[in-house]
């Protein structure tokens, strides 16, 4: 049995016009434990909606999402979430207090949760920054805190919504390497949303390409089989890039022509 | 409540650290514009009084300060200030204590918000000054009518600011807490409440200004002591100097309390700041 299963999932919202606006339709995908899936697609294709349903923030309008055979109905500590912006951190708590938030609401005793939180602070490479407040940390550091906060709860899977989208290129590349290392160390199943082909190939074990929105669906899933540290100089990288790029090119074109029609 | 508002934000403390070279100079540089501003105010007042108006009805600052010194020495000034401040303090604390929970409820439960909104939206347009006559009829000319008026002047501003604070907590903060396993109650008191603190404090700061306006008007109409009484008696007996002492006291008190509030917000609640 698959670890995560999305069965013919669709999501629509009631639009002002009275018609429904379709965000995602007929989306089916399975994930194995330890998978690192990057979901790639043009803006407005519904990739964030998929993540939001996996997290349980929104319920599918049709179809089913199963985690370990159980239907996903509401958010839970099973599924850690890393958001794009840093506005999900709690600015009145220190870095380590942010990380231990999940353990605190879970009733873990103070000493124990502090020790765990410090371990995860170490894991994300922020040793020594425990007592800093989010406002004192850089964008990359804040995303590390978010990752540590999600991981400290030992979730079954990690859901990441363009977590490095707002970072500068340099920091972004460092964070990508760090995330690979953390994934290697923890073996957590990850679903990672991005619109960056390069990022998807450097990070994931599989790249899922979505069709253009509105009402996007999964177009193809490309397994990335590169060993060791992923380098752009690797000839395999170039082949994967071509493959993913040709899959997504038409969709981006469709997305922009739809935008013109709508305007 | 788990909010530890008593610990200073370290970054605020850093900024004002006296150990840094030139910190003393920086402190002077920070208050210098204020000092200059006040100095110019008094100079302009002096020029207007002595050279332009040249009337006993517009005393110069020196005469007002002399009168203030006299009233302070006899203890009268502090009695009047004390009477007004006590009313403001009691009414302001009670008004905030009523307004904060109602605001939290309105911001959290949409049904409650819709139900309470007619009250707040109706009553907040009736100025507290307009309520003076009815307050005196209901509560007499003693302390109770004044405290009622200050509560009235405080409660709506604090309620509405608190409610809008709760309603604007970013969705991701709440979702993050949900995904970390927090219960609805935990989300409320560990996330929504601390995130709302800056809005509550801002509402209280605005309410404080309102309370000052209201207390003077109320005391002018019905009271036996307070700065408003000083103003009113000054008119009755043509004690222009005393009127000016009273006005000066109001300005200084208002300014001081507002600064103290701002300082308190930065010192104790800087880390609750919605930025970041």
TrEMBL record, chain A:
**SUPFAM superfamilies, per the entry:** P-loop containing nucleoside triphosphate hydrolases
Q: Which GO terms describe its molecular function?
A: ATP binding; ATP hydrolysis activity
Give a yes or no for keyword Coiled coil in this entry: no
InterPro entries per the UniProt record, alphabetical: AAA+_ATPase, ABC_transporter-like_ATP-bd, ABC_transporter-like_CS, ABC_transporter_ATP-bind, P-loop_NTPase
A Pfam entry, by short name:
ABC_tran
ABC transporter domain location: 4-237
Q: Which UniProt keywords are given for this protein, alphabetically ordered?
A: ATP-binding, Nucleotide-binding, Transport
Q: Which Gene3D superfamilies is this protein grouped with? A: P-loop containing nucleotide triphosphate hydrolases
In the record, the note on similarity to other proteins reads: Belongs to the ABC transporter superfamily.
Q: What is this protein called?
A: NitT/TauT family transport system ATP-binding protein
Organism of derivation: Enterovirga rhinocerotis
Q: What is the lineage of its organism?
A: Bacteria, Pseudomonadati, Pseudomonadota, Alphaproteobacteria, Hyphomicrobiales
TrEMBL record, chain B:
Pull one GO CC term from this UniProt entry: plasma membrane
A single Pfam family, by name?
BPD_transp_1
Sections of the chain in a coiled coil: none
- Domain ABC transmembrane type-1 intervals: 81-261
Identify the InterPro entries for this entry.
MetI-like, MetI-like_sf
Compartment list = Cell membrane
Q: Report keywords, A-Z.
A: Cell membrane, Membrane, Transmembrane, Transmembrane helix, Transport
Q: Where is this chain primarily localised? A: membrane
N-terminal signal peptide: none
**Residue stretches spanning the membrane:** 23-43, 50-68, 88-110, 122-141, 147-167, 187-216, 236-257
Q: One GO BP annotation here?
A: alkanesulfonate transmembrane transport
Q: How does it sit in the membrane?
A: Multi-pass membrane protein
Family, similarity comment? Belongs to the binding-protein-dependent transport system permease family.
What is the recorded function of this protein according to its Swiss-Prot or TrEMBL entry?
Probably part of an ABC transporter complex. Probably responsible for the translocation of the substrate across the membrane.
Q: What is this protein called?
A: NitT/TauT family transport system permease protein
Question: What species is this protein from?
Answer: Enterovirga rhinocerotis
